[in-house]
Amino acid sequence: DALCAYFHTHDKKILEKALTYFGVILVFGVGAGLGSILTAALGTKAIWICCVLLSVSFGMMFVPERK
């Protein structure tokens, strides 16, 4: 939604918001992929690494926007 709004308005703040959303999605995807690889290698201990990456993704959603 934010990306479409940027294409209509060309507002840089909206673009930053869209890139933040894509960053959260990217970190989540990397965490899921890495989790599947690490689970095969480390077993159940890999869940802690996945928790850290998910926490980073969760924290990114609460970073205040620059004004």
Structure description:
Helix content is 81%, strand content 0%. It has 67 residues and is mainly α. Helix 1 (2-9) packs antiparallel against helix 2 (12-42) and helix 2 (12-42) runs antiparallel to helix 3 (46-60). It starts with a helix and ends in a 7-residue tail after the last helix.
Summarize the structure.
The protein has 67 residues and is mostly helical. The chain has 3 helices and no strands.
State Rg: 16 Å
Structural class: mainly alpha
Per DSSP, the total helix count is 3
Mean pLDDT: 83
What is the end-to-end distance?
21 Å
H and E string = HHH
Mind describing the biggest β-sheet?
Answer: none
Q: Indicate the percent of residues in helices.
A: over 70%
The count of β-strands is 0
- How much beta, percentage-wise? under 5%
- The backbone outline, from C-alpha atoms, is elongated
Which key terms come to mind for this protein?
67 residues, mainly alpha, 3 helices
SSE layout and pairings?
Elements: H1 2-9, H2 12-42, H3 46-60
